[in-house]
Amino acid sequence: MYERRASENGPVVSAVGLGCMGMSEFYGASDDATSIAVIHRALDMGVTFLDTADIYGAGRNEELVGRAIADRRDKAFVCTKFAIMRSTDGAFLGISGKPEYVKQACDASLQRLGIDHIDLYYQHRVDPQVPIEDTVGAMAELVAAGKVRHLGLSEAAPETIRRAAAVHPIAALQTELSLWSRAPETKILAACRELGVLFVAYSPLGRGFLTGQIKSRSDLADNDYRRQSPRFSEENFGKNLELVARVESLANEKGCTAAQLALAWVLTRGDHVVAIPGTRSLDRLGQNAAAADVTLTAQELASLDAILPADAAAGGRYDAGGMAIVDG
User: Which residues lie across from 50 on neighbouring strands?
Assistant: First the structure.
């Protein structure tokens, strides 16, 4: 696995990382032992960029990652997030960027992860009620205290990133980017390059849809979050399935999987871009990692642009409530 960085002082991370969220929640049933085996294999393969957050599984995902890396901490680049609050029963309670909450959340994450420092600490969503300067100022104190190595933001607008970077260097921005979520191409990718910020693409496989493995809504478990996602709705599923079929056809011509084609496309968005596909499968992990070696020609990129131009996907990436807290 080759590595990327966005600035001289920024972190060096694997071009393809591992999103761990689905190992604990949102995508149906999972098995901790299998998930830990996937994390171990990832680290052995050089997929060292591990992504979690305090809300995934209401803290259980951080605990899972912590158990997985307990005897191999030196191999893992651990990223976690704060700001979206949940109660002990999992209910969502809003967003907080208050300085006192930043410190409280960090200490709780360190305890669940069982580590003495977080390699990359993100604000998961921007709190519109708290100036970004105040939030990042508190995050910078965590760096000074040795609890955090690098700071990041998630789903932040370019001007917010600039204001944050004026307080403390921002190492990474995590925002959704895929063949059917292309909004960052207009301004955000350029802002990140200008500021030396690593762009971390989450959901680079369209929450699994772009893999071509989901053919029907019945393929999703009853408790799968995607059943409530606009792009997986009864109204939009068939339209999006037609788009994915065209991606699959191009992948077959190239001799790779649809997932590898989609991930390779993300990595062409810039040498400051990395992807963090999630998986609970050892086989899929290997396939995703191999996408880093897939090279796309100008003609193939043009074909993908024709298949999935901006806004081609039917339905938004979140419902109205979810969209209200992105690009903050």
Answer: 18, 78
